[in-house]
Amino acid sequence: MEIELEQGWEIIERGITRLKNILEGLPEPKFSSANYMELYTTVHTMCTQKAPHDYSQQLYDRYRESIEDYINSMVLPSLREKHDEFLPRELVKRWANHKVLVRWLSHIFHYLDREFIPRRSLLPLREVGFICFRNLVYHAFYRDLRVSVLSLIDQEREGEEIDRALLKNVVDIFVEIGTGQMDYYVHDFEAAMLRATVAYYSGKASNWIQEDSCPDYLLKVEECLRSEKDRVSRYLHPSSEPKLLEVVIEI
Q1: 45: Cβ–Cβ under 8 A, 6 or more apart, which residues?
Q2: Which processes are annotated in GO (biological process) (predicted)?
């Protein structure tokens, strides 16, 4: 028996809404394997019916639209009301939830990834999901995120205790948002981090040269290099280490 587009989408959308509610912490019954199979089977049937009832393209488009709708209705409003250190915490949570949502939906719409997408040379579902977050969330907040990270790094350099786990999770967003490419990390974060490092140590070095003997000055430089190497190992991407050490040595 053929499933019409709106009839099938009603079933799928109901399931997606439940998944979104679970992510939001709203009361929902456990999502069972039977619930999952109903959605998977509905998608499979709608994609394998004979034309004009093959709804693969429509489901591919609605997959993206359902993610965009979740971001616009739930994610962005929650981020816009957060400020100071609460923004990076909320963004880390939202990125983690987004990855879970994309994983769940990619399982439900798996037939598209396996058959339809390769035939049409379209972007895989996971990549589509990540692009939605990048376009709607990341581009709106990455500057604020960068300011928070650079502020925390400076606080740590001054000897303050910081939440390194939070910092690592925030830096990971810059890495992961590129879906295998490091461009966003390099251009949107690392370049500014290196400039901030130069500014920080230039100020320190000016004072040290005036106040310390040559051996004491060199000891402080050695300590800075150790600290920056430790910083990379704890929360920066390994590719930053040579660049970071180079700017410290050159100061």
Answers
A1: 3, 8
A2: ubiquitin-dependent protein catabolic process
